[in-house]
Amino acid sequence: MHRRTLLAAVGTLGVGSAAATLSGATLSETVAPAAQLQINVAADGPVVGALTPVNPDGGNSYQTVSLPRSFTDPVVIAKPLELTLQRGHTRIRNVQSDTFEIRVEEWSGQDDTSHPEADVSYIVVEAGVTTLDGGTVLDAGTVDVAESFGLRNGFESVTFSDTLTNPIAMAQTQTANDTDAVTSHISSKKDISTASIGGTGMEIKIENDSRNSALHDTETVGYIAIESTESLTDGEDTLGGVTFAAGDTPTEINENPKRVDFGGSYPDGFVADLQTFIGAQEHYLRYDTRTDTGVDILIEEDLGRDNSHADNAVGYLAWAL
After folding, report:
1. Domain assignment present for 287
2. C-alpha torsion angle, residues 116, 173, 240, 168 (rounded to 10)
3. Residue 217: inside a domain, yes or no?
4. What is the pTM of this model?
5. pLDDT for 45-81, tens place per residue?
6. Into how many domains does the chain fold?
7. 298-314 pLDDT, tens per residue?
8. Is 321 helix (H, G, I), strand (E, B) or coil?
9. Residue 22 lies in a domain
């Protein structure tokens, strides 16, 4: 059963739904109003929300998400996808000042036309540095990444605009220049076994479908890096009335679901990504059994692999109104 979580948006004041034309965020007319309620509580912060589901009626077509305010240089992260009986992940394209498109993407060994309904949370931030009320620093941006043959090749360096203390990071392709399925990965300056992202930057690479022998075309990858809030009072920070918790796990996440405790109640959404690049098979995150205080996280490999994966570390950002 899908959890119809309340959507929060740190943006301009307004409430909206797909079925009623109000001031606020909308998705497509195929999505029920309950899935699209948005409350926007700040004028210039990130927009956060949840698509419940991201693929109405189990389709795989791109859906347009309309944001409650405009950005100059937006960065979108919408991952991981809720676990289903079919392998897949989210794909983003056409990121504009106040909209983006998203769908569930499957691998070449699948039909890529239908997928069981699945939920995903998302965050949209302005590129550059954002400082939360308690001093937590968030840095976001984009980088063009081309795939290269070889496990350790093809990493593009990203230098943060500010030095971050104990950061966690997330990255996701923002374009669909190549329609083949693709995943993005981050690591700490090419040390793929390091469980923490560097304070001044990181490395990003993309990987093509395992059944496609050609290199994937260059894609624009968006990233968000935020300082861990685990050492702060109550392990959280706020911005515009929304409470955020950022943290990471030990290097212990693999194909078996592992419970991640947020350290408090954050019922309104979360995003997460692998912090390490360990294991030669193409892979990405899925989630299952999300509650207000935590979620089960696991690694899923593309359809051409055996779905047995080495341990990695995961970073997350969760929020509550």
Report:
1. no
2. 100
3. no
4. 0.87
5. 899 999 999 999 899 999 999 998 899 999 999 999 9
6. 1
7. 999 876 677 778 999 99
8. coil
9. yes
